[in-house]
């Protein structure tokens, strides 16, 4: 193997590692955003992020938007005075 072959293998390995890292971050991101924002369905957003990313990237932006959308506030019971 020449020096160019070794360099090409190193570049290929780094490229594959970067693709795997971006895939993992993209799957993790909607759930993390939902948890930090206190979303009531944070676990569902996490599952949606991973499932849509694995089964096809087309619906992944919807999971990301869902992480940012606040659910309607629950009505508090009025205290008797």
Structural write-up:
- This protein is mainly α and 81 residues long.
- The chain has three helices and no strands.
- The protein has helices at 3-36, 42-55, 60-68.
- Helix 1 (3-36) runs antiparallel to helix 2.
- The chain is rod-shaped, with a radius of gyration of 21 Å.
- The model has no long low-confidence stretch (mean pLDDT 89).
The gist of it:
The chain has helices at residues 3-36, 42-55, 60-68.
List keywords for this structure.
81 residues; mainly alpha; 3 helices; rod-shaped
Structural class: mainly alpha
Output the helix-strand order.
HHH
Runs in which pLDDT lies below 50 for 5 or more consecutive residues are none
The percent of residues in helical segments reads: over 70%
Compute the average pLDDT.
89
Number of β-strand runs: 0
Gyration radius over CA: 21 Å
Total helical elements: 3
